[in-house]
């Protein structure tokens, strides 16, 4: 069995690894993908059309990614994750297992998502964050396990999100508090 299959007009750098590991299902990549040097995409990953990585990206197994997704340099997407279409993950983003990112989401550089409420101390299972359609996450934001960022919400740079952020609001601070979304930030992202 082939380690991966891809559509038309794909550019996979010679020192990128696609289909890493031993899995029952190969990696499937749609048309017009660009996977840059140093990137590793595990087996059992499904990616739509128009996928683009920076350098040294890691995408782990059992991940599903939609169309027109950008994954910035040195970003890590751990396995068992779902990412929608028209998503932009900038440089150095960490996306843990059991995370859901819906369509038309922007995640700024250095953002960190977590999925383990009490690391090593207890075994409560893993629950990553959910980022709803049209939301924006600023640079260096931290999202704690299980939080939901509502549709079209905006999380300001450097915020630490410990509770759900309602749709169409601005979250600011550490811990983040929800505020009225300023008029210039209203509406969905324009990534599509």
Could you characterize the architecture of this molecule?
This protein has 192 residues and is mostly beta strands. Helices cover 0% and strands 34% of the residues. The protein has strands at 4-6, 11-12, 17-20, 27-29, 34-35, 40-42, 45-47, 52-53, 58-59, 63-65, 70-71, 76-77, 82-83, 88-89, 94-95, 100-101, 106-107, 112-113, 130-131, 136-137, 142-143, 148-149, 154-155, 160-161, 169-173, 176-180. It has an eight-stranded parallel beta sheet, with no helix packed on it. Strands 8-11-14-17-20-23-25-26 form an eight-stranded mixed beta sheet, with no helix packed on it. A hairpin with a 2-residue loop joins strand 25 (169-173) and strand 26.
- The strand order across the widest sheet is 1-4-7-10-13-16-19-22
The number of distinct helices, counting runs of at least 4 residues, comes to 0
- Low-confidence spans: pLDDT under 50, at least 5 residues? none
> Taking all residues together, what is the mean pLDDT?
95
Please tell me how large the radius of gyration is: 16 Å
DSSP strand (E) fraction? 25-35%
Number of beta-strand segments:
26
Order of helices and strands: EEEEEEEEEEEEEEEEEEEEEEEEEE
The shape, in one word, is globular
Structural class: mainly beta
- The N- and C-terminal alpha carbons lie at a distance of 35 Å
Helicity, in percent? under 10%
